[in-house]
Every structure is written in structure tokens, then in C-alpha cells.
Amino acid sequence: xxTNAQHESLPISQLIDIKIKELGDWRGALLGRLRDxxxxxxxxxxEELKWRGVPVWSHNGIICTGETYKHxxxxxxxxxxxxxxxxxxxxxxxxxNTRRAIDFHEHDSINETALKALIQAAxxxxxxxxxxEPKPGKA
Length: 139
Fold this sequence. Notes:
The protein is of the alpha+beta class. Helix content is 38%, strand content 19%.
């Protein structure tokens, strides 16, 4: 991603738009579609860029990231191991104790209904965790 000073003052959403456009191939189109699905599943989602330009979507904590590599777009759910996945959408990072990921290759289809359900489950998990944590200074 171009990190010139001209982009530093842009809103995060525009920086993600630029990243998607700069990819210029199937990865950008796929990342854009995943982004749309995340926004549809959680209209209150917060977009960030972390770790040298990786899009991160949060709602009371990280929901997922969208990383792009030469042959894959990887959508990693921060607390994926705790999420129900009845449709078997997760296909990567399955051995981890916390994270789970979905690797999308160029011609893969997206189970949009199942993906939205995972996103909504991740938001619910974050919301429930926030409610269960005691406030600082209170026992």
C-alpha cells in the first residue's frame, strides 16, 4: 500500500479503498466483497489498518483481519476457535487455540450466509465478553 504523506490524513475507509484498488486483481475484488459482507453483517463495525496496512474490522474487540498474499486472501478471526462453524467455513489455522482463518483462492466461492453468521457470532462473543468483564476498580 502506498503510505505517502498524501494519504496520511485520509479516513481509514478511504485508505482501505486505496489498498483494494492498488491490488488491481482478483484479490482486491475479493477483499472488497468480504468487506461488503462484513459491513452487511455488522453495520456498526469499525475499520482500522494495522500491522503495515492490514485491514482490521472490530466491534468491542477485533472481529477479523483481511490479509492479501500472492495466491490467497486470508480472513482471520481473532477468536475463531470459540465460534460455532456448522458449515465448515474455516479452512486454515485450525490447530490454533484462539484464531481460525478462511483462505480464499482466486476461483473460490463465498458461502455468504455462513460467513455473515460467523461475523455476527464474533460480534456477539465480543459483546458478551465486554459485559462479563468487571469494571476496573470494582470487585
